[in-house]
């Protein structure tokens, strides 16, 4: 069997061109940024008692990802900031779990990059769905942001009087 190649696919030296860079999906880029934040966890500080600094990260995402900034966040601002940085529109530095619930599209089968809200009502905690049953969140345990099993987080909140898990998609 003879394999024919397309001669125009090769340069003058007979070499195939290098593969084109494939831009990761928005969802994959969001998850990667959350993972980088875990690596740079010493650069992120939890706010204290509704401190106005809870939204600093929203304006400093790039610097934190580059490892050149130290800033404050909370769980909802951690999600909103990363999503906004990657082009998700409609999220602001004022968002909290309740406003995320109003802005996101409720989904029953979350995919990486989606948001999970733990607890009833306006929610108690927000995190990002990653891969293989894990979340990355901020402010729910020492050393956050960190990677935690979705099941473990749901169990924790249920045992502490905040049952319920809702998944939201912001990525179109």
**Overall number of structural domains:** 1
Topology as H/E string? HEHEHHEEEEEHE
- Overall 3D form: globular
- Quick check: average pLDDT? 86
Class inferred from helices and paired strands: alpha+beta
Describe the model.
- It is built from five helices and eight strands.
- The protein is an alpha+beta fold and 172 residues long.
- It has a single domain, classed as endopeptidase fold (from Nostoc punctiforme).
- Strand 6 and strand 7 form a beta hairpin.
- The protein is globular.
Short description:
By secondary structure, this protein is of the alpha+beta class. It has five helices and eight strands, in the order H-E-H-E-H-H-E-E-E-E-E-H-E.
Feature tags:
172 residues; alpha+beta; endopeptidase fold (from Nostoc punctiforme); six-stranded antiparallel β-sheet; two-stranded parallel sheet; 5 helices; 31% helix; globular; disordered N terminus
What is the topological layout?
Blueprint: H1 26-39, E1 44-46, H2 56-66, E2 71-73, H3 75-85, H4 97-103, E3 105-107, E4 115-118, E5 125-129, E6 134-137, E7 146-149, H5 150-159, E8 165-169
Parallel strand pairs: 1-2
Antiparallel strand pairs: 3-8, 4-5, 4-8, 5-6, 6-7
Helix pairs in contact: 2-3
